[in-house]
């Protein structure tokens, strides 16, 4: 089964609004969570990450919320801009695991309209 | 600062032909290295990882192999390409397990 799920393949937000991207995971051993941004035919760029000992981390317009009991984490982008239009990938890892595997979701295409 | 370089940028190859893709990281000693693959419209999948020179572990079987001949070099190869090998190949590094992974620019492979 898919261990990391992004249930919304796409999201459209108006410029200036808040974009909320969601990710659910199955493995309760995951303790590292990240969001990447990807343009077509480009490689993913790390945006922000968080470890399981915190439930929130802010960096400028970006905030990651982690809900461990619900196996859910989200990325909030405030004051969304057209330049934020891209595919957003969530990823999770178990730092004590044996297979060194960062598991990605399928991605959500965020479109910010002027 | 660390830099990661992949070569070639793009390849068009015939079914049944051999393939070798390369990845080099500079500015970081003993990184963990990873190969990923994304088919068009597909999910990013990890193929291999390596935590030290000469040691490579397979995560997904795709009739590909990988080697790490030097601390800063990771090679992906096959002797016979399949149509299903087409896609975007990405190399990544991290300072350790459970840490951020940083991706190279990628190689676009088209198998005809």
Low-confidence regions of chain B: none
CATH architecture of chain B: Sandwich
By DSSP (H or I, 4+ residues per run), the number of helices of chain A equals 0
Mean model confidence by pLDDT of chain A: 93
Helix content of chain A: under 10%
What do we call the CATH homologous superfamily of chain B?
Immunoglobulins
How would you describe this protein?
The complex is a heterodimer of chains A (114) and B (112). With 114 residues, chain A is mostly beta strands. Chain A has one domain (4-103): Immunoglobulins (Immunoglobulin-like), CATH 2.60.40. Chain A contains no helices and eleven strands. In chain A, a hairpin with a 2-residue loop joins strand 6 and strand 7. Chain B has a single domain (3-107), classed as Immunoglobulin-like (Sandwich), CATH 2.60.40. In chain B, strand 7 and strand 8 form a beta hairpin. In chain B, the strands form two sheets. In chain B, strands 2, 4, 5, 6, 9, 10 and 11 form a seven-stranded mixed beta sheet that branches. A four-stranded antiparallel beta sheet of chain B has the order 1-3-8-7, with no helix packed on it. The mean pLDDT of chain B is 93. Chain B is globular, with a radius of gyration of 13 Å. Chain B is 0% helix and 56% strand. Classes of the chains: A mainly beta (114), B mainly beta (112).
